[in-house]
Amino acid sequence: MIVPDTKENLNQCICTKCPTYVQCMKDKSEGLFCARGKSACKIEEEECICMDCPVDTEYKLTARLDLMEKKILKLNQFYCINGPAGSKK
Known about the structure:
mainly alpha, 38% helix
């Protein structure tokens, strides 16, 4: 599902709390990657918390997946690296 890039979604966004979120992203005020897409920063995958985000829940980005799919997705979601939700990678 496509996530709208809105102020309301940005206010719910937890990107800045993510272990993968780096200083470069902070300096560029990046976030809401599920709507805005990849970061311009160099990133090393740490841990993805996208599934815990209220935006993920609201737009049902992972709600329709079974437990195994969610475990796999948790390792590979990384909208900051892979692009916005609903995009072809």
